[in-house]
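Researcher: Checking consistency across runs. Here is SGNH/GDSL hydrolase family protein again:
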Amino acid sequence: MTTTWIAAHRAAVINPHEDFALFPVRSFTGQTVRQAIRPAGGGEALRVRLSNRYGTTPLKIGGAHLAQRTRGSGIDPTTDTTLLFDGTPTVTVPPGEDTVSDPVTRTVTAGEELVISLYLPGHTGPSTYSAVPYDIGYTVHGNQLDAEVLHDAEELPTGHFLTGIDVRAPEGTRIAVGFGDSWIEGMATTPGTGHSLPARLDRRLTRGWIVNQGISGNRLLTDEIGDHLLARVQRDVLDVPGVSHVLVHIGLNDLGLPGAIAFPEPGKLPTADDLITGLTALADRLHTAGLTVIGSTIGPYAGTVYPGYDTEEGQAVRLRVNEWLSGDDHPFDAIADLAAAVADPDHPDRIREEYNSGDGLHVNDAGTKALADAVDLTLLDL
């Protein structure tokens, strides 16, 4: 059987040097960082992707290990494997660059919990990071790559340097990419449970799988938080090995962040035409690459607790864009009506109570199930 490399896990990353930060920025000095992942698909080997994309100094990795997770920061020591980079156990990643480990030949099973441990001997500077990792990570001082448990470890609510794994899967395996904002990434879902929209949707698939390239706070047209969606297309979709389909949710932060950042002064919002033009450009670029593109309506957020986010102007733009997406003139192959899936029937501009995470902007674990159930699986012909 002929095999090829296919993405099995992804984590889109943020520049820690942005002017506006929603999440804490971290650096590390002489520490071990241990992070868990759950591959969406399996294969006969894997390789690990690390990034210093937004670093301003070389990232020295004094060692990297792979193991199966037990619980918390614990690993099964019988599965502990040293990762190599061009045959050596250490690597220095230049600023602005990524690196990929040498292949590790082992059976990878979809859904198993793996742990990547990195020893960072020098000062890393502010790390290239992801807002919502699969689960809480851990860090301790010193080289504890092979420690069975990291005692007295500090918990890390954000992910660092780890951008994904690929697996050796049968040639012809096709996957989808969830691409967009917090409704893709899984903000406000329970860490370690696989309750993001892509993970929920993945469990419904009978063939192929879906990886998550959401960034909470991300926008279609404007940088911060993360490079804007149109700027991320090549790296976070087109360069993902095996991608054939894309599920997009974007627009909430284009409408809400300007007001929230400028509060109490009014912020300048994009017009409906601005968003329609941007969404059309996104669909056209993905179609040019031969991908199937599923758009989605912009989710409800009226009454959110974040000051300045919910404005009359923003709600009017959302309504017009959703009307366009629900009509016949949009450029997508299909539309998933995610807004309707979780909206309060009596107040459709609000999230219904049983799906509300508590902030009026994000859905909870039950809400992501409703979102996943709203996606017609015949659209994901993987």
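Researcher: Does this match what you'd expect to see?
Model: One thing to look at in this run: Helices lie at 182-185, 197-202, 229-238, 252-262, 272-288, 312-325, 338-342, 365-373.
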